[in-house]
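Form 7-S
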Amino acid sequence: MGYIASWSGGKDSCFACYQAILNGYDISYLLNFISKEYKRVSFHGTESKLIQLQSQATGIPLLQKETTWDGYEKEFKEAVKSLIPTGVNGIVFGDIYLQEHRDWVERVCKDLGIEAIEPLWKKEPEKILLGFIEYGFEAIIVSAKSDLIDEKWIGQKIDKKFVKYLKDKNIDLCGENGEYHTFVTGGPLFKTKIKITKQKTIAREGYYLLDTIEFSL
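Output:
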């Protein structure tokens, strides 16, 4: 039996995937959606090529599809349906406490006749974030709300200093409401690290965004 990992490229989807593997689930695909307009992961702003690099680095095949805001559910279902004949029995998601997200996930998976797996659900955000760090994963901050998080953190690694910064500012530690987003560059799920060698920060529509210019394995 195989399972899909819903994959944004960030820490929560990665850590959920890893926890599922530790719990005995066989992850046969990473499933990623990018904006048809910008060719980047929605909200995260991560370039499609970087997600493809994560697939290479983990050795897990990637199904990457373009999607639109209005057509997301239909396009999500079509993508999953294309994998079900390969023996896929469920999808792993990285939701933590947003009930509307879980309700959507469970409804869509029920429609598809497969299982929804939520390894991080209702766990304490601090334990999740510290666990991610302590397991040896590495991730950088690729976007953040400019009215909440200083520009200096863009492109920086997630570490205990950043955890303290979030706690001091009373910001949700996992950024579950979109306060910030990350891109995972290495860790126990990865066979090799991703190197970002040239980057810049841009400001757009209330967010600081990392624009990666050069990267490699």
